[in-house]
Design brief:
The chain contains 10 helices and 3 strands. The protein is mainly alpha-helical.
């Protein structure tokens, strides 16, 4: 498959994904392959000549693979933890809180945030951790009011924990 054919395929992908940036890059490169002058391409694209030259240099240096990655660029904020760190975090959570130096037998959000800080020096908002844990395959259970009829009758007190408690096994393993 020739480079021009691959560029045309990328243009079709750009149209399918409604990716204007990829479409414009591909169109400029196709016009250049048809011997259109850089000045004319810049005028049609509404950018300066230097931008077209930069696109051409990058394309010549990185090839078609550079264009393929363009439709993934800029899709939200990058993760604070790498894939390897996330895998390590899953292993640490599966070991349980006591093996990681905590005195409680059940994970809660604050403890997981502390674990991430201690091991990876990354801070997460406690509210976001539930989303992160779900992405890693863990489920959680909200704590409820716990009443003991005898103690309630004696003291009138109720116990409540505001934390989210995390299962130490991913969802699929916890169901079996």
């Amino acid at each position: 498959m020739s480079i021009v054919d691959r560029l045309k395929k990328n243009m079709a992908t750009a149209l399918k994904l409604s990716n204007i940036c990829l479409y414009r890059l591909t169109q400029a490169l196709l016009w250049f392959s048809e011997c259109m002058r850089i000045k004319e391409i810049a005028r049609l694209m509404g950018v300066c000549e230097k931008t077209i030259i930069n696109w051409l240099k990058t394309f010549m240096h990185k090839g078609v693979g550079w264009l393929i990655g363009q439709h993934y660029q800029g899709r939200g904020r990058k993760s604070k933890l790498t894939k390897d760190q996330k895998n390590k975090l899953v292993e640490l959570i599966k070991k349980g809180p006591e093996d990681n130096g905590f005195h409680c037998g059940i994970w809660n959000t604050a403890m997981i945030a502390e674990l991430i800080w201690l091991k990876f020096e990354v801070r997460y908002n406690l509210n976001y951790l539930s989303s992160l844990m779900k992405k890693l395959g863990f489920s959680y259970q909200k704590a409820r009011f716990v009443t003991d009829r005898q103690e309630e009758e004696k003291s009138g007190s109720r116990y409540f924990c505001e934390s989210l408690f995390w299962a130490s096994q991913p969802k699929q393993a916890a169901k079996t």
